[in-house]
Amino acid sequence: IDAFYRGDVESCRMALGAIEPDASVARLVPVLRCLLGEKVALSPAASSLVEQVAGGAGRLGDTLRKLDRALDKQERPLCLALMREAVALCRRLRPELYEPLRQHITIRSMLAGLDPKAVAAALNGPAVKNARFWHLLARAYDESHGSPLLALEACACWEEFRKHAAQEGLLPPNGPEAAALYLHMAELLDRVPEDEFDSYRREFREGRGVASRKQASALLPPDGEDPYFLSPFALFERACQADPCPENFRAWLDWARRRDPQKAETIAWGWRVAHPDDAEPVLFLMEAAESRGALQRAFKLMQIAENLDGLHPEVRRARFRLLVSMAMRHLRQKKAHLAEREIRALKVLPQAQQGDRPAFVAALEWLCGLISGHPGVAGEAAARTIELMGGEAAAGFLVNGAAAAARCQGLVGEPDARSLSGPIAAALGRACALGDDVGVPVRIPPDLRDRLIKEIEADGAGLAPPLLAALGEAALRTSDYLLAYTISSAGLGLDAATQAAMLFLRARSLPPWEDGRIEACARAAAELARRRRDVDLLGRIGAWRARSGPFDIPWDASVTPDSEQLRAIVEKESAAREYPRFPPEDNYVPWRCDCPFCRARRRKRRDPVEQVIAELVEELGPEGAAEALAEILGPEPERPSPKRRGRPAGDELPR
After folding, report:
1. Which residues have a Cβ under 8 Å from the Cβ of 94 and sit 6 or more positions away?
2. Cα–Cα distance measured from residue 80 to residue 86, given in angstroms and rounded to the nearest whole number
3. 8 A C-beta contact, residue 171 and residue 162
4. Degrees to nearest 5, angle at CA 203 with 199 and 205
5. Buried b / exposed e along 163-182 (16+ C-beta atoms within 10 A)
């Protein structure tokens, strides 16, 4: 008996086995074995003792397990009979659980699709719809994986729970608890696809969801407008009003960036008002102003962010970036005197002394001297740029890219391929890397393309990995996929850190019909970047995947290649040196690809509309094709007749 109440089943069975059959306590052996879950024959007195000791919980548990199986199998008559038995046992044995059990059974039968009236009759009336009931129903919809309409149903049930819990004193109207509930409802609505949200919301309003039409109508406001729990923006707004902490504003802003960018700045200003000492909303407002070209406003916001958190890495990068953007704008506007002010500020900036950035500042001085008509200043800046870039070729590529961004190419001129002696890949790669660093991309001259490909094929692996990556990005900017493919082939033979970037470059340089290779390279690049904790590369891969276009390939984030698969992908792509030509299918026409091969193929193929018309004429004849097209296009809309103007005086007509 001691082992039984301690829950030590094995010790209890050992003790029962040691009892002699003729002992006086042997009459309790069947009772204890039955309580342990064994099937034994009991006398009426022993059965009564088992029921008194177990409190009937065993019988009630068996009945509920049978009911659960019957609900899974949709056996409606058996379900109703077991419901009557279960509630009767519960009322007699565990009266404190009577109402919660009726609520559980009601919700379980609702999800199983049973008739609510028949269920209510079997349960001796409808279950009480208090906060506990709505909490159970909302959780049931939360855990259901089916139509996105269930997310709207769950939000409606959470709203009913909120109201009943407030009335019962279980949930305060404001505070972290209420804010957490609003954020959870917003997270549920985020499961609904953006392009289908309006249709599902309309279905919910019409009562075509899981809930009955009467229940759905009761949850809607009387004026016919959508309730707040069907609007993620309203839910985030209520969450920030209930608990205006930075975490809630951050979640709201992250949602707005993805789903409603036009309201993101309004949210950031609200965050700024609620927490004036936070630098994060100021940084977002600064980036938003910079993206729409309001550089002066962005610079003022950057100064505010510096006062709040001068050590923030994004704040320190922002001053250099904004000064460069403002200088380039003034150079485009031919306002050299204003650009000189920004250049002077750049010279004393610590961030402008890193790496090759002093050469870029000198290149800006070079352009500024040419625009303002001071050849002496331009000559000194040119000499300093050449010295800092390590040669005339790299300096020429850099200043040419800056001049193109400033729209003053005529002052500098294109680099002449015939005048450049020696290798150019390293010089061009250094200029491209510096241009990417300062936000002024350098363009690869078209007449240097073939020469660059030969150099990279001969000794591409000899270039530093950052220079290879910069050349690859520059090639992609001009849609030179062959050059980008060649660069990725050279970089795949390097270390694992470079292989991740080169696989991503290979994925973007492949033609669209190589969708299997594109997905394999992108997936391998993401996995290698994840293992090396390269957050920047992972973000670029995610942004590339999020964009729609010809490379719209299904992506299952749960499937990641293992080490053996990664090694196989790298070896396969390293061996594939030749750019893939057209697919063998003659019917494939890459209408959306802009590479030179696809453009040439499109010129040889007929326009798809002309192809359809030709097939119709061949099949139906000219008259039949005309009738078919007229039926497809419909009647031509009537055009209003032009107003007649009076004839001018005299016999001469207007010329």
Report:
1. 55, 56, 57, 60
2. 10
3. yes
4. 115
5. ebbeeeeebeeeeeebbebb
Smallest Cα–Cα separation from 526: which of 565, 493, 490, 487? 565
Map 285-327 to HEC letters.
Answer: HHHHHHHCCCHHHHHHHHHHHHHHCCCCHHHHHHHHHHHHHHH
Six-digit token pair at 24?
């006086």
Q: Which run of H or of E encompasses 286?
A: helix 280-291
Decide if 605 contacts 590 (C-beta within 8 A): no
Judge contact between 255 and 232, C-beta under 8 A. yes
Nearest to 470 by CA among 512, 442, 500: 442
How is residue 180 written in tokens? 């957490």
- The tens digit of pLDDT for each residue in 368-414 reads 888 888 888 888 888 988 888 888 888 888 888 888 888 887 777 66
**pLDDT tens string 481-539:** 888 888 888 888 777 778 888 999 998 888 887 888 888 888 889 888 888 888 888 88
Query: How confident is the model over 113-145, as pLDDT tens digits?
Result: 888 899 999 998 999 999 999 999 999 888 877
Average pLDDT over residues 312-316: 82
Instruction: Give the start-end residues of each E strand in 410-455.
Output: none
Write the DSSP symbol of residue 646: P
With residue 163 as reference, give the H or E element that holds it. Answer: helix 149-167
Question: Rounded to an integer, what distance in angstroms lies between the CA atom of residue 34 and that of residue 151?
Answer: 46
**What is the pTM (predicted TM-score) of this model?**
0.66
Q: What percent of the chain has pLDDT over 70?
A: 84
Task: Confirm if 408 and 444 have CB atoms less than 8 A apart.
Answer: no
Distance CA 21, CA 16 (A): 10
Hey, what amino acid is at 176?
P
**Whether 229 contacts 156, CB under 8 Å:** yes
Report how far residue 551's alpha carbon sits from residue 214's, in angstroms, rounded to the nearest whole number.
Answer: 46
Backbone dihedral region of 474: left (phi > 0), alpha (psi from -120 to 50 degrees) or beta? alpha
Give me the amino acid identity at 78: L
